[in-house]
């Protein structure tokens, strides 16, 4: 019996595994090369420290900020802002998308306003929100909520309107009521579109947070960046940008995990 047989792998399976490992390693090659060149440029003086701190200095600062508790405490403040803003924005997007998707009258009332809102960047409203809500936490949360409404609304609306009519005909033939059709047919069929909108909303919330925390913040990642800018601490700025990036990746992973659990019934054309 050969070693291949003991492993239980066919030659094609073994080749695919090697290709997957090579592809995984190749994805990390260019970022590692960039970090190496960055470190080399910093050590040789081509990249001044006041322009951009070396990766080794950034890692040292990151460890120091974590051990001192400075980064976790400010990260918690930023996370709370995103969570509250998302809760409001996603909730409003769900309600408006559901109403417009299920009712022609609601569509006529809601969709024109949402299309107007789509053309207004959330960040352009920053001065107006400061006038309305002051410089506390409210304008920051309001900006995040305003920016995350539309992707949830649009994708849920499109998902509802894109339901196969044959599914609704089948539901009617089984004697399902209007709301039973919505619950058992329309919403499950619109769920993939809704999750796409949620992924967009999470990404937008991180982008808006970066700018919103520049509004007279006394805590949060934006507060750390403002202080670091005043003292030319590029290492702290890079650390905070890394945390923003990790927040974005974490949000995307969360929705992907939700998709994997909620859409197990959906066939996939992608082979492992």
From TrEMBL:
Principal location: membrane
Gene Ontology CC terms, in alphabetical order: plasma membrane
InterPro entries hit by this protein: MetI-like, MetI-like_sf
Bilayer topology: Multi-pass membrane protein
Keywords: Cell membrane, Membrane, Transmembrane, Transmembrane helix, Transport
Pfam family membership, one: BPD_transp_1
Residue ranges crossing the lipid bilayer per the database entry: 21-38, 75-98, 119-135, 141-160, 204-224, 236-255
The ABC transmembrane type-1 domain, residue ranges: 71-255
GO biological process, one term: alkanesulfonate transmembrane transport
Cellular compartments annotated: Cell membrane
Domain of life: Bacteria
Family: Belongs to the binding-protein-dependent transport system permease family.
Annotated function: Probably part of an ABC transporter complex. Probably responsible for the translocation of the substrate across the membrane.
Protein name, entry field: ABC transporter permease
Native organism: Sphingobium yanoikuyae
